[in-house]
Structures are given as C-alpha cells and as structure tokens.
Amino acid sequence: MEEILQKLNLSPVNSGAGTGTEWLECGGDILESVSPVDGRIIARVKQASNEDYERVMDRAVSAFDAWSGVPAPLRGEVVRRMGNAMRERKRDLAALLSLEVGKIRSEAEGEIQEMIDIADFATGQSRMLYGFTMQSERPGHRMYEQWHPLGPIGVITAFNFPVAVWSWNAMIALIAGDTVVWKPSSKVPLTSLATMKIVGRVIEEQGLPEGILSVVIGRGRDVGERLVVDRRLPLISATGSVAMGRKVAQAVSARLGRSLLELGGNNAVIVTPDADLSLAVRAILFGAVGTAGQRCTTTRRVIAHKSIFDSLANALVAAYRKVPIGNPLEEGVLMGPLIDREAVAKMQKALEALKAQGGRVLYGGEVLSGGLYDAGTYVTPAICEARSDYPIVRQETFAPILYMIPYETLEEAIEYHNSAPQGLSSAIFTNDLREAEYFLSHRGSDCGIANVNIGTSGAEIGGAFGGEKETGGGREAGSDVWKTYMRRQTTTINWSGEMPLAQGVRFDV
Ligand code: UN1
C-alpha cells in the first residue's frame, strides 16, 4: 500500500485542494480514505475550508483568462500530453483505484484507459470545433456561428468512476478553453488527488497557467453546495444519485446556469425467444456483476420472454455460481466488495422489500463473512424473480441485484422496459431484425443508450453518454458533446452599402 502511495506522490496525509502543482495548506477537517477491500485506512486528506475553496476558485477564474486565449489546437496538444502522462502511470493509478473503490484490476485499468481514450479524442476534437455558416436572406450579408470558451466549470463526480467521468468532462472542457474545478466523491479522494498530480506534471512542464485544472475536497456536501450556487461557474456537470441531481438542477437553474446531469440508471436487457442465449448470459453477467453492480450502466433488469425465461435464469444462476468474489487486486477475482457497509445494508433492505412486494430471490444476496470478507463489504450477487410494477424494481439500488421479469409480447416488454423512471442504458438480445428495429425506433427504448446484442454497461467514449427522464438528460464524452462546454455566437456581417432588414421589414425615414 505504502509503495503505491509513494509511486503516485501521495503521503499519509494529503492536501485536499490544489491545482495539480500547487497544494494548499487546507484548513478543514481530516477525511479518511477507507479501503472497502479490507476496511483499512489507505491515507488521509486534509479537507478544504471555505477560504481554501475561494482561493481555488480565484485561480480557476484567472487561469480562464489566459487559457481561453490559447488556440484550441495548442490546448489539444496539452491534453495529448496529459493523456500520455496517464498512459505512463496507468498500472499504478489502477492499483490505487482498485484499492480505494474495490473494482477488479482489469476494470480499474479499463477506467484509466477511458481517461486516456477521451484525452486522445479531445486532442483530435481540438481542431474540429466547427461552426456552421448560413445563407443570409439579405443581399451582401454573411452569417456564421462560432464557438467560444464558456468559463471555469464545476465537475462533481461519484465514487464508482472517480476519475474517468472527470476526464470525460475535463479533457473536453480544456480543449474548449474552459478551466475546471473538480469536486470528487469524499468516499474516494485519493485516486483523484493522484490523477491531479499526474496531470499537474504536464501543467508544470509546459508552464501553463496555474489553475486550469483544480480539485477541492471539502467536508461532506459543503464544497458541492458552494460550487452549484457559484455564479462564476456557468456550467456544473454532476454525476450521482437522482436526489443529488435534483438539488443540483434546482440550485443551478435558480441562477440560470447550465447543468449537465448524469444520474441514476435502471438499465434493462430484453431477451427475446430467438436470442443467442449464450451471448445474452455473458453480457448480462458482466453488466450485472461487473463493478459489483455499481455502475450507472449496470444491468438491473432482465425482461425475458416466457418461453426462454427458465433456461435463461438457470444459465445465469450457473454463471453466477462460478464468479470468484474476493480481493479485487488478486488475479482471477471477478467481483470485489461494495463501496462500504452502508451499501451492503441498502442491498439487504432492497432484497427484503422485494420479498415483501411478492418477489423471490433465485440466487445470492448473502453478506459474506470470514477472513477478508469480515470487512463487511462482500456479498454474493443476487438474481431475483420480480414484476416490473414492484416499487423496488423501479428504484436504482446501487448493488448487484438483478430483477428478472417475464413477458409475452414485445409490446409488453417495451412497456415494462420504459416504465422505469430512469432512462440511461438499454439492450435487446435478438436475431430478429424486426424486433431489433422496433426496439431502436421511437416506439422502442426510451433511453439515451440502446444496444443490440451487447449489454448495457461498458460504453465506449466516442458516443455521447447519458440518458433521459430521471437520468437527467445530460450527455458527456464523445459525439458533439464539446458544444456543452462552449458558448455559441451567431454573427451576421453586412458587407453591402445598404441596410436591409430581415423578414422584409421596412423602417426608412
Ligand atoms: C458510470 O457508471 O457513471 O459505460 C459511468 C460504462 C462506463 C462508464 C460508466 N464506460 O459502463
């Protein structure tokens, strides 16, 4: 443990606020980062006080002044270097991520890869911040639009993807000319500090403005609450629960700011009669058990046709039995712990609710004990038989619980599918073209992500990521998401000697 900390320039007690190169003598309380793997404290963080927050914000504001004037392709070059710095430290950073979040090594490395991928993507994008030109209705006029940097932006991230989601936002924001103030989850402060130190090296080497990136770890919700009401931040990007998102949305919209929300998911896979069941089982297994069910894209519901319901359920139970559960840093383990004991208690409560509402646990759901398991954070993943109208099925429980729901007609399956209040990710397993197209049509899935013959989780960064309804409507990462981080300006230039008005209006004296 000490070795990983040292390699990543972390100490037993770390400053919780800084710009990657400069760290403040923070005035707040001490925060302990407790590993869900064995319940031990990894290291401590001295949290930011209100004054520390102000100091960080001042830097982000003055850095914006300088950074927004750097040509976008040169900003892209900086992001390219940041991606390379992450590449060099991938293994070490993934080791810390495993320890702090509890995800298995391969998934932790996947998360760092996601950071690198978005840096590469952003580098290319930096030369493609395209605006349209339009045909003016007035003679001798030219119309076009251009995209300007937006300002310093606030990014709030969740514990389950502590660094990738920041990178989706930060790398794109940087090429857009924005500066970024980051409030990571207080459950996992160290991985974010280590990441800031890695990109900080690039900031230092390149002599870049202090404060283009910064991190503030503050007591509980304090910093988050200051961030969302701060008028200096025209955009707040927040990832987390629906309850948190609702508060952020209200606070940001009260000051007419812009928010980008990526909230809960209640992702379902529809499995039709002629689906390739072995493919479906593999995808559902990773979707439901991967990251111990703690992704916002985790598969939480399987809506299976009656004719294949039992064989699919049996195949899933057989697969679940084989999942090695244990220390996520060990080779061969596929499922680590949940983030903390509170998450385990919530999972237990959800299973109780399911039974009270008429459902049945087909497999798993136990809290494990003995040896490492005594950390109290290890469970067996659960498969349950349920109905789509149970209140518990409509909620997102951030744990490995899979609800299996039988259906008869595809229309019914879609109805069940769309009855969830959240709308992030979805999938259908079918070899029937008509079923697949129906699912992808406007009558089909109502989610931001809709897949065919692949699962709900593990999206690539190239697509826009996010969802509808209670998921919050935001989009992050690829496609044309960069536009959210810039302000659009429509310009009309008159190069004629006349002053014609649009819509044929006459106003001559
Ligand atoms: C999240 O859980 O907040 O699609 C993000 C996925 C990952 C990102 C998940 N690429 O599962």
TrEMBL record:
Keywords: NAD, Oxidoreductase
GO MF terms held by the record: aldehyde dehydrogenase (NAD+) activity
Similarity-based family: Belongs to the aldehyde dehydrogenase family.
Domain Aldehyde dehydrogenase: residue ranges: 28-490
Active-site residues from the entry: 262
Origin: domain of life: Bacteria
EC number: 1.2.1.3
Keyword Transmembrane helix: no
One Pfam short name: Aldedh
Subunit structure comment from the entry: Homotetramer.
Stored InterPro entries: Ald_DH/histidinol_DH, Ald_DH_C, Ald_DH_CS_GLU, Ald_DH_N, Aldehyde_DH_dom, ALDH7A1-like
Protein name: aldehyde dehydrogenase (NAD(+))
Keyword Oxidoreductase carried by entry: yes
